[in-house]
């Protein structure tokens, strides 16, 4: 039997939990030969290798080691190196996930080499082109051959953009596969957090449920400009007096805080535990026990919806509206943070339900679709 070579592309942290269950599932089929291409967009130990270790993802077959740069230069480097990979390995199918620069760059390359492409997490739209991710989503979906979606609104977006229904498969959420597969295991780990100032904080298995909030902020719109980052730092200070906050900060946020002279102030906030990025298992443990989550991330809106933890998303829009319609997510502005936190502390946080097919079985649905052969 001819094996179909499938290249799974991952570049940045949120991609890794999406490819983990898919790689495992595709490996069970004799007819598939899955390979992992790491573009190297994220390269720090705790933004990349740690996730491969904790999620038992096989070592990438190739690492393109593109690193960080301006959007154009990073995208160009991914394209050049991924083209060579495709010419050497001749995959039958390229699967890309999410909305990062690696997603759009590799789809463009594969399409022009007449290699079939599939986009997992297709059709999500924030309708905000000031987000680089929205441009990546639009570019990727304009030229993909096969579309795997996480929710019905994504199907509708794709159909409205002229994609044939036959090529769209609503399969559910791969990130939730990873969460469902690992949630129990996360309760058995103890957490040792190293604060940016060098001191350490440890939580054992007796972590105080709902006694703290978790934060993540890294969107350019929130952290790239001094005035909005400064506003946020002042609000974190105030909020942390009502509820201690744990903040594993993205390198982009730390770099900006340093450049704007705000890092010392962040470190000095008493009830704010500021750390470097932490592992997946530690993060999910913290999330699942949190009173609330304050974020501007995409994936965390979904993870909190699955776990029923109230989530305040500090963004003007979201490409994941199902987390608002059905889940625990609420979009707010910087100025609303304090009042909304009070609201949740007063027991008025949003309750929600799990969206359709967010059940831990998405990877097997995708594999089944692929066995129907679309090559
Ligand atoms: C990227 C994705 C974003 C995703 C985020 C998750 C794009 C356009 N954006 O944003 O959608 O939510 O990843 O983390 O693809 N850096 C490090 N170490 C690393 C990686 C990055 O220090 O391992 C630094 C870089 O030097 C750069 C900054 O972080 O200064 C931004 O990295 P980059 O990959 O360009 O974008 P992200 O902000 O991480």
State the gist of this model.
The chain has 375 residues and is of the alpha/beta class. It contains 16 helices and 15 strands. A 7-stranded parallel beta sheet has the order 3-2-1-4-5-6-7, sandwiched between helices. A 6-stranded parallel beta sheet has the order 12-11-10-13-14-15, sandwiched between helices. A two-stranded antiparallel sheet has the order 8-9.
Characterise this structure.
The protein is α/β, with parallel strands linked by helices and 375 residues long. It folds into two domains: 4-172 and 358-370, Rossmann fold (3-Layer(aba) Sandwich); 188-345, Glycogen Phosphorylase B (Rossmann fold), CATH 3.40.50. The chain is 43% helix and 17% strand. It contains 16 helices and 15 strands. α1 (13-26) crosses α16 (362-371) and α7 packs across α12 (280-288). It is globular and about 60 Å long. The mean pLDDT is 96. Bound molecules: uridine-diphosphate-N-acetylglucosamine. Uridine-diphosphate-N-acetylglucosamine binds next to α1, α5 and α10.
Bound molecules: uridine-diphosphate-N-acetylglucosamine
Secondary-structure-derived class: alpha/beta
Poorly predicted tracts of residues:
none
Helix content: 40-55%
CATH top level of the largest domain is: Alpha Beta
Q: Give the rounded overall mean pLDDT.
A: 96
CATH topology of the largest domain: Rossmann fold
> Based on CA inertia axes, which overall geometry fits?
globular
Radius of gyration: 20 Å
Please outline the major beta sheet.
7 strands, parallel
Considering the protein shown, what is the CATH homologous superfamily of the largest domain? Glycogen Phosphorylase B
């Amino acid at each position: 039997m001819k094996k179909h070579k499938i290249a799974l592309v991952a570049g940045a942290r949120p991609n890794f939990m999406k490819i983990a269950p898919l790689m495992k599932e595709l490996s069970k089929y004799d007819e598939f030969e899955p390979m992992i291409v790491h573009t190297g967009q994220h390269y720090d130990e705790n933004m990349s290798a740690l996730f491969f270790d904790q999620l038992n993802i096989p070592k990438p077959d190739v690492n393109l080691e593109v690193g960080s740069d301006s959007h154009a230069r990073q995208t160009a480097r991914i394209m050049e190196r991924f083209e060579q990979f495709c010419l050497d390995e001749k995959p039958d199918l390229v699967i890309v996930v999410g909305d990062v620069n690696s997603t759009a760059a590799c789809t463009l390359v594969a399409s022009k080499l007449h290699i079939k492409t599939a986009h997992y997490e297709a059709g999500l739209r924030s309708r905000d082109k000031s987000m680089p991710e929205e441009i990546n989503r639009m570019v990727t979906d304009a030229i993909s051959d096969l579309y795997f979606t996480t929710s019905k609104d994504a199907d509708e977006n794709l159909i409205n953009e002229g994609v044939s229904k036959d090529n769209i498969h609503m399969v559910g959420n791969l990130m939730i596969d990873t969460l469902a597969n690992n949630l129990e295991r996360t309760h058995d780990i103890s957490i040792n957090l190293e604060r940016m100032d060098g001191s350490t904080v440890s939580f054992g298995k007796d972590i105080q449920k709902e006694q703290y909030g978790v934060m993540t902020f890294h969107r350019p719109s929130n952290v790239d400009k001094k005035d909005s980052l400064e506003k946020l730092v002042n609000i974190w200070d105030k909020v942390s007096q009502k509820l201690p906050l744990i903040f594993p900060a993205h390198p982009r946020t730390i770099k900006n805080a340093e450049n704007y002279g705000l890092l010392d102030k962040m470190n000095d906030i008493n009830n704010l535990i500021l750390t470097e990025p932490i592992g997946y298992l530690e993060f999910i443990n913290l999330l699942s026990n949190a009173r609330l989550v304050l974020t501007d991330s995409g994936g965390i809106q979904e993870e909190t919806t699955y776990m029923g933890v109230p989530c305040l998303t500090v963004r003007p829009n979201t490409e994941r509206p199902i987390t608002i319609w059905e889940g625990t997510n609420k979009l707010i502005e910087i100025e609303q943070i304090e009042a909304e936190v009070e609201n949740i502390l007063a027991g008025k946080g949003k309750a929600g339900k799990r969206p359709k097919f967010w059940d831990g079985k998405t990877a097997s649905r995708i594999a089944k679709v692929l066995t129907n052969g679309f090559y």
